[in-house]
Here is the input.
Amino acid sequence: MIISEYTLSRAKKLNIMNFFDMEFPLNLQILWMDILNADSIIAPVLIGSHSHSFYEIHLAFSGKCRYECDGNEYEIGENEALFIPCRVNHKYLGCDADILKTSLAFSCNKTLMPENTEIKKIRLSQNILLNIDHILKYCDNTDIFTPSLVGGRIFEIIYNLIKTVNMSPALPEDKSIDPRFIIAKQFIENNIHLSISVEDVAKECCLSSKQLNRIFKNQTSCSLYDYIVKSKINKAEKLLAGKEKNIKEIGYLLGFENECSFITFFKRHRGITPGKFRANK
Here is the structure.
């Protein structure tokens, strides 16, 4: 990924995006994500030492950036990140003139992030860099899926950062909920616009298709394939009820190659065509 290919004018579209209405597992909420250069980082200098009730992640793509956290100085450079837990006193110390970075903030419940979580300096994985790349590409989109696509990618970044610092999310308080089901369910929701397969979902969860299918049957009483189908049908019905998009556009937004294949899919699983479903609303 070469983030410098993207202009800051495009990044500004990300800076004003609202994620508050999006729902993620374990009460995780994305508060903001900014793309910043040296000029746009000037304002935080005035804040001084402070702390938050949420978590901050600062990711550098070029240049170097320095912070003080609980009295210790941390410097991050190209493709490095600094994870700052909640209630940690920290302040911005300065940066190189060629700095280009992302600031990301989120909140969540204690089952996802233990209270004793420490400050961490992290080397960014290729998966995280690719997600940043996708986020910036989505910023030019104006359709109704854009916030969900961007929010989903940010969720994946947070999830991968948690794995990177070897902090495995704790089991939900309801022990009957398999955390692998939560990951798979979120992956399906984030990628409902693609022609995803059972194998795609299983690969994301590092499981075989057979193993993940067994988990879905235990959690939902239906197969993983049926769950993917149901998710696409539910999304299609919401879009058809809204009437903002025509049937061809809706099929495209759900990963179908053409209008005919979408109509066939919808009729097979709902018993009527998308047009008749819309007419009955």
Notes: Residues 168-175 have pLDDT under 50 and may be disordered.
